[in-house]
Structure formats: structure tokens, C-alpha cells
Amino acid sequence: MNGRREDDWDDIFNDMYDEFGLDMRKINKEMARFWESIMKGDINSKIVGPYVYGFSYKIGPDGKPVFQEFGNVPRTGIGTRKDTQEGFREPLTDINEDKENVYITYELPGVEKNDINLVVNENNIELKVDKGTRKYYKNIEFNTGVDIDTVIAKFTNGILDITIKKLNSKNGGRAVKID
């Protein structure tokens, strides 16, 4: 930091990130470590294609901040995520709910409807695309039971929208037809 302490501008943003539950210093260190490993050629050779990392931030229905990471960048200090598979990218995903439904939106650029494998059961939804260079995987566990017989899935221009009614059902999973 060329001998200077963080100025007031840094303090304002660091306080804001802390309020959101984000440790931007840790995120910046992870990204610097990642790019340094790429420059040295030490990156995990099992990841193929472009390297993707990002995050989304929103306020959840309970008024608390929701921070969600996505991508295919290996995690070395942040922790291993359970919702990804090696060699697959994690699609940008938006999850919302109201009293009656759970709404999930996946961004799947370059994917055809027939390439999407979507399975829903009362505990989770699993999306997998394994076609050429377009490899996406995301497993989401539900906070509440859902009625798997009410799943509506629509795919338009790389966007997959899912609506599922909340319910505490005991059925097994089922494959979902995408319109």
C-alpha cells in the first residue's frame, strides 16, 4: 500500500461490505491468489475452458442480505462448495420465494432446451448440462418442502425459469419437462 493507511473512502466501503456480511479483503486476496496461479501455470488442469467467477447480492425476503457466488474457479481458502461438480461451471442463479411458491431462474447462455437435465424432489433441485463446452451444474436444497407435481419450467433465450409450489410432500424425484 505504498506506506499509506486505508483512507476514509476505504473505511466507508469496508464498513458497507461488513454490514452485508462480505469480507472484501478476503475475496480480493482469493482473486489475487487465483490470477497468480494462472500466471505461474499452477492452475488445476481439470478445469477446462474459460474461468468464471462472480457473485450476486440481494436482500432476501427476511430483509437480510443474500450473497451468492458462482463460477468454476477452484476454491482454496473460502471453502468447498457442495453445489458444484469439478469441470462444470455454476450458472448465475436467482432464487426467490413467496408464501406459495419458490421461483428459480438460471442463466444458461449457449444452451439448447434439449441439453438441460433438470430433476426436482421435495428436498432439492438439480440442474445439469453436459454438452460440448457448455457444462453447467447446480444443486439447490430447498428451505421448505415443495410439491414436485406442480413444477413449471420455461426456457427462453438462455434463461430457464422454474416455479414450484411449496408443500411438505413425501414423493420421490421426477424428471421435469421444459417448455
* Weakly predicted, low-confidence segments: 76-83
Q: How would you classify the helix and strand content by structural class?
A: alpha+beta
**What is the count of β-strands?**
10
Average pLDDT metric: 75
Q: What's the CATH class of the domain at 82-175, please?
A: Mainly Beta
Strand content: 25-35%
Jot down its keywords.
Immunoglobulin-like; 2 helices
Structure description:
Residues 76-83 have low confidence and may be disordered. The strands form three sheets. A four-stranded antiparallel sheet has the order 3-4-9-8, with no helix packed on it. The termini are far apart. The chain has 179 residues and is an alpha+beta fold. The longest helix has 17 residues, at 24-40. It has helices spanning 8-20, 24-40; strands spanning 53-59, 65-71, 93-97, 101-107, 116-120, 124-131, 134-141, 152-156, 159-165, 174-175. Strand 5 and strand 6 (124-131) form a beta hairpin. The protein has a domain at 82-175: Immunoglobulin-like (Sandwich), CATH 2.60.40.790. The chain is flat, with a radius of gyration of 19 Å.
Write the layout of secondary structure elements.
Elements: H1 8-20, H2 24-40, E1 53-59, E2 65-71, E3 93-97, E4 101-107, E5 116-120, E6 124-131, E7 134-141, E8 152-156, E9 159-165, E10 174-175
Antiparallel strand pairs: 1-2, 3-4, 4-9, 5-6, 5-10, 6-7, 8-9
In short:
With 179 residues, the chain is α+β, with helices and mostly antiparallel strands.
